[in-house]
Specification:
Strand content: 25-35%
Helix content: 10-25%
Shape: globular
Largest sheet: 10 strands, antiparallel
Radius of gyration: 18 Å
Distance between the termini: 45 Å
Structural class: alpha+beta
Strand order of the largest sheet: 1-3-4-5-2-7-10-9-8-6
Order of helices and strands: HEHHHEEEEEHHHEEEE
Number of strands: 10
Length: 298
């Protein structure tokens, strides 16, 4: 079996220094669709270095994402075919607001390995800290098709009961035709998002958008719509990638306010509140894209 769960879990964590600056933040924001309209003061918070606010999801690519999802596939006990790999979900915990530039140490390890029968799920945990202490923790759920069935722990369910009632807000966000090509410049060069031949090998008719690009687009919509544009209010952000997005499609983002109810990312209620989110692709009869999505906030 290409995945040796015991060996993967016992492997020593890998640490490395990462750094980023305002240019990296600006590029990331453009990669998730910021800057439309270009002169809108609310958009200039994301696109003008003199008034820059860092969207928390930038943490998923800071320092080009190392030692992120792809490097997790080269850890001891893990030897899999990249064409069988999908990003199943993501949880981000913010320990304090992200600075627009900085240097930090990122420590990555396999935190869990689950046997889903026809697939395996690896939880790649990356903890990042600078000289002032912890900055953020990223948990990436890596779904590897065809690697399950060894009788291991199936792991917890990330499924939540559907939100009740009509959403408090619904917005639509158009994905550019070249969105994946722009987003990949922030560090995720998986050919699935650019190379038509590789995409077909992986079972897709054409390249798909990075799940973490949709993740960033969605968080920006929540911050701008329900959190008064204040990026520092976000405390945790978790999602399950429920379907693909094709560049050029339109995302429908539905949002429900809830009173501090915990999602799968946190064991207790947030001291503030939470937003439940569902994202779908308009052109494909609202096919689900992000599910079981929760933004906890102050």
């Amino acid at each position: 079996m290409p995945i040796d769960a015991a060996k993967a879990l016992a492997a020593e964590p890998r640490s490395g220094d990462i750094s980023w600056d305002r240019k990296d933040v600006l590029l990331y924001h453009l990669g998730i669709g910021a800057g439309v309209p270009a002169t809108d003061p609310d958009e200039l918070r994301y696109t003008l270095e003199s008034r820059l606010h860092v969207l928390p999801s930038f943490a998923t690519v800071a320092g080009s994402g190392a030692p992120g999802v792809i490097s997790g596939l080269s850890l001891p006990g893990v030897d899999v075919d990249l064409s069988r790999v999908l990003h199943g979900g993501q949880t981000l915990t913010l320990h304090r607001p992200l600075p627009a530039e900085g240097t930090a140490t990122a420590t990555g390890r396999i935190a869990a390995v689950y046997d889903k029968g026809k697939a395996a799920v690896l939880v790649m945990r990356t903890e990042v800290a600078d000289t002032d202490g912890p900055l953020w923790t990223n948990d990436a759920q890596i779904f590897v098709r065809g690697e399950g069935g060894w009788g291991g722990d199936r792991g917890p369910s990330a499924r939540l009961d559907p939100p009740e009632g009509a959403p408090d807000r619904t917005v639509e966000r158009r994905v550019r035709e070249d969105q994946a090509l722009l987003y990949r410049l922030s560090g995720d060069f998986n050919p699935l998002h650019a190379d038509p031949e590789f995409a077909k090998l992986a079972g897709f008719e054409r390249p798909i958008l990075h799940g973490l690009c949709t993740y960033g687009i969605t968080l920006k919509a929540v911050v701008d719509t329900l959190l008064d544009g204040d990026v520092t209010r976000v405390r945790t952000y978790t999602t399950r990638f429920a379907g693909v997005v094709h560049p050029g499609e339109t995302l429908k983002v539905r949002m429900w306010r809830v009173a501090g109810s915990p999602g799968p990312a946190s064991p207790s209620a947030s001291p503030g509140g939470a937003v439940r989110v569902a994202v779908s692709a308009v052109e494909r009869d609202d096919a689900p894209v992000l599910a079981d999505t929760v933004v906890e906030h102050l």
